[in-house]
Amino acid sequence: MKIVVLKFGGTSVGTIEKIKKVSRIIGEFRKKKYKVIVVSSAMSGVTNELVKKSRLISENFSENEYDVLVSSGEQMACSLIAGRLINNGFKSRSWLGWQLPIFTYGPHKNSRIYQINKNKIIKYLREGGIPIIAGFQGINKENRITTIGRGGSDASAIMLAKFFKAKRCIIYTDVEGVFTTDPNKLSKAKKIKVISYEEMLEMASLGAKVMQPVSIQDARLNRIDIEVKSSFTNRPGTLITKKSNITKNKIITGISSTHNDSKVTLVGVKDRPGVAASIFKPLSINSINVDMVVQNISANGKETDLTFTIKTDDLNKTKRIIKENKKINFRKILFEKGVSKISIIGVGMITTPGVTFRMFQSLSSKNINIQVISTSEIKISVLINSKDVKKALIVLHKEFKLDK
Amino acid sequence: MKIVVLKFGGTSVGTIEKIKKVSRIIGEFRKKKYKVIVVSSAMSGVTNELVKKSRLISENFSENEYDVLVSSGEQMACSLIAGRLINNGFKSRSWLGWQLPIFTYGPHKNSRIYQINKNKIIKYLREGGIPIIAGFQGINKENRITTIGRGGSDASAIMLAKFFKAKRCIIYTDVEGVFTTDPNKLSKAKKIKVISYEEMLEMASLGAKVMQPVSIQDARLNRIDIEVKSSFTNRPGTLITKKSNITKNKIITGISSTHNDSKVTLVGVKDRPGVAASIFKPLSINSINVDMVVQNISANGKETDLTFTIKTDDLNKTKRIIKENKKINFRKILFEKGVSKISIIGVGMITTPGVTFRMFQSLSSKNINIQVISTSEIKISVLINSKDVKKALIVLHKEFKLDK
What we know:
alpha/beta
């Protein structure tokens, strides 16, 4: 069976008109003789509204009941899409997690799919039906509704693609695909036609809001090709696939940037085992997300300087936590607002020498000062002053030929 | 097990604050060592909003998907109530139709409960849990979600009371109970402490909006005592029970009235079999609700006059349908707006002679003209001019000692 999984995000089904639109997209695929499996998120706004209700009921709302509550959002969206397809003359119906079933393990609010019973859907597809499967939900061994925390409906789509051995998995969203850099920051940004899972993982965690890293990782592990595209246009999107499928590599695939972070430096920290943990543990407990961490080797073997970045919103909280923490010994603490992280990402840099040099030279040519450097196999990140972000994006985008 | 079924209507769970309130009511029953089964409707407004969406998707929205869509409303309400009870320290959880299951037969949107699997709930009650069961929903043989058309969550509550042999079934709503007549029309109206199913059926179909007739009939057939009361006050409500449980009968239990109906008279209708059907069938097809129908015997054996009442909103449609219907032969058609039906109801009238006379004399004493008369075993209805309704209610309420 030539199966394609189509997943629609919350904005793609956000209004009645948009549900009509996605139903047309689904119908067109069906006419191409594909067997179509549809996965839907809740209409945008619905989940937030339900979460808000749960918080008003209890500051510590039961996680079991949370899943019952929020899973109703996908239930509504699926029935509306199925209803529209039926209206348009197709055989269609909604399928909820318990109706297949989709089995999950792990805690409520954060379950993971481990098994999908395919029989009913295979039979239904053979009969010519279009199943509209509720994303984000499943059941556990106790026959209770669960929801898939991270990745949500994307994760549902990828697991369905895996179990049904789908030829394609298309993630419809409100952006046209993955771009070389944020089009809102650089108008010359170009849509990337094809990107590897590994690059996409770096892009995702660096701020490209297209897909959750956990879903990309699921796709990578199961070798599922994903196309990310917009449900509002007919233009092709971005294909996320394995490296070996990508024949023409650019050295750099994309550039990401953060907005207005803050830099914290602890000067003269005692250089002994466990010191980093003693600093970052209380920050983590207080939900402060630490991004870049750089520690130089200790010159005298006794003291070192430790630098890390955080969101500026968390700066005051961070100051307080560090100052109150008597376990940390340091001589001085420095703060700087208005810093940004620029990263260049590309599997091409593994085989191409001199990428680092080209990056630094380009920035230098525009008098952009590099404050901190951090690298991985397919990524180089530098910290610069936020006022230089635009300049940096322009020069790097040009240097690595992403304009074309 | 001493089980009580508590059912909460849409207005009783209409806001977060009201959900907190009903959770307190539930908690108090639990503390009284009752085993409590809760049935909830959707939060008021939610179902209408969902129905509206379905209509925007398709004028002929799939009935199967309609049930998936609207049943999500009860799902949300149940999880919120359970979440609140857990917050308050109770063991509680939501149960959806498919989780028991509650089995239904009949068409989608209008299914009926025929079986409830009790095992899981009994076990849960024994463990000290408070099950919050979604009203209005069940599943059919195909494992699809169904909804219970007429009676809705009330019907769910009554069937649960039946299968679990509950001691009491309390229907919480936004009125304090059943009144001798509409308190908005007559301030002297008194709450009825106890009323028979049969009287309640007449009251319900005559406009007391407390419960759907079909649910009262279910309760009557299964001999389930129902208490209707308000979730907003602590005052006792109205007990609906079998006649033999009611020791002190008043002759008349209640008086109902309609507002601003219209009267249609067909003069000189050919008096032959099938003529009534040929008039009322097209009205029924067009969803026009015909209330009182009176036909006098034919004086000459050939022609008769037929009078019926309808809602004034339907008058123009009715005129058109009758005039376009070539199958009906009549000499003249008369219309009159601004008529109202006054009914006195009471099992007491079976054993008490002279009730009809007392009703007519009372109305006559106030110069109220009776246009049409219709009676059943426990009810006498008359049609009067709408301007006389208030006067009629006052004189009848006093005549039959309902003021006390």
